[in-house]
Design a protein that fits this description.
The chain is α/β, with parallel strands linked by helices. It folds into two domains: 199 residues, Rossmann fold, CATH 3.40.50.1820; 79 residues, no CATH class. It is built from twelve helices and six strands. A six-stranded parallel beta sheet has the order 2-1-3-4-5-6, with helices on both faces. The longest helix is centred in the middle third of the chain and has 20 residues. The mean pLDDT is 93.
């Protein structure tokens, strides 16, 4: 999507969160960015919409490769300024974007929402702990659930003891931990596909954050139950200090959850609304750091 006139334009590549996603979720952002003077490239994730392949068998490196392929495509377009191409990513993209940017000097800016900083394993464990609280598990049940998660992540990391893990899931399926067993059973990758998902247990985002020197906008929700905001902020700050990157704007939206959605008290149909100022912050930051700053 291009602005109405002028050019060459700065451009943003939109990167997806976890699971299947088409391009349509990005269209409202792209329209706002076009009015500001930015071009956008937004695409269906592997195996979603009109894209071939499968996100289920894609590794984190595969997704980072897709992100860089989008950048390389934009750099061939006459309407695009090749020196002003950046990433916009939410949730899982908080790991994809720094990984994609690390071998390249082509990324001019980055917006990350509710993602990265903390490792995938830390994020997953945090999310499970929130589930345990909502399910009102006893201390003994929580201990049992954590041991099960330890075995699950060990399998993801090493490929060992898959049969034992499956047997354990079958044992607890009828008890209080049944929902956890069902959840892990649904997402447990096959032996053949397990290497593509090992990153969930092993990926360390710190080395990639420590190489980021471009301007960054990092947005988080205070009440995110899917990603550990406090830990993520700590890790982002630590890594960017090591990168000696002081071109960072970091905001935490009070009361907001994952994706900066205001879920508490929302009872209407559809998705919860964004926090006040969520889009305006992005537009203002892009205007200052991407459009005006580079003129």
């Amino acid at each position: 999507m291009l602005p109405a006139a002028g050019g060459p334009f700065p451009a943003v590549v939109f990167l997806h969160g976890s699971g299947p996603h088409t391009r349509e979720g990005f269209r409202p952002y792209a329209e706002e960015f076009a009015r500001l003077g930015l071009a956008s490239l937004f695409f269906d994730k592997r195996g979603s919409g009109e894209s071939g392949g499968s996100w289920i068998t894609a590794s984190l490196e595969d997704l980072a490769g897709d992100a860089l392929a989008a950048v390389h495509h934009l750099r061939t377009e006459e309407a695009i300024d090749p020196d002003r191409i950046g990433f916009w990513g939410v949730s899982q993209a908080g790991w994809v974007a720094p990984l994609a940017a690390s071998p390249s000097e082509e990324i001019a800016f980055m917006i990350v929402i509710s993602g990265g900083g903390a490792s995938p394993r830390e994020s997953e464990l945090f999310s499970y702990e929130q589930q345990f609280e909502r399910a009102k598990l006893t201390p003994a049940q929580k201990s049992q659930a954590r041991e099960l998660l330890r075995a699950y992540f060990e399998y993801l990391a090493t490929g060992r003891q898959r049969a034992e893990l499956i047997a354990r899931l079958d044992e607890i399926r009828a008890g209080p931990l049944g929902p956890l067993a069902e959840q892990l059973d649904r997402i447990l990758p096959s032996e053949e596909n397990r290497p593509n998902w090992s990153w969930v247990a092993t990926h360390d985002p710190a080395p990639y954050i420590e190489r980021l020197t471009c301007p960054l906008l990092l947005l988080f929700g205070e009440r995110d139950t899917d990603h550990p905001t406090a830990l993520a902020l700590e890790r982002w700050r630590e890594g960017l200090r090591k990168a000696r990157n002081d071109r960072v704007t970091l905001m935490v939206f009070p009361g907001a959850g994952h994706g900066i959605r205001m879920r508490e008290g929302h009872s209407g149909g559809g998705r919860a609304p964004f926090a006040d100022g969520y889009l305006e912050v992005q537009l203002g930051w892009l205007w200052r750091h991407v459009i005006v700053h580079t003129r």
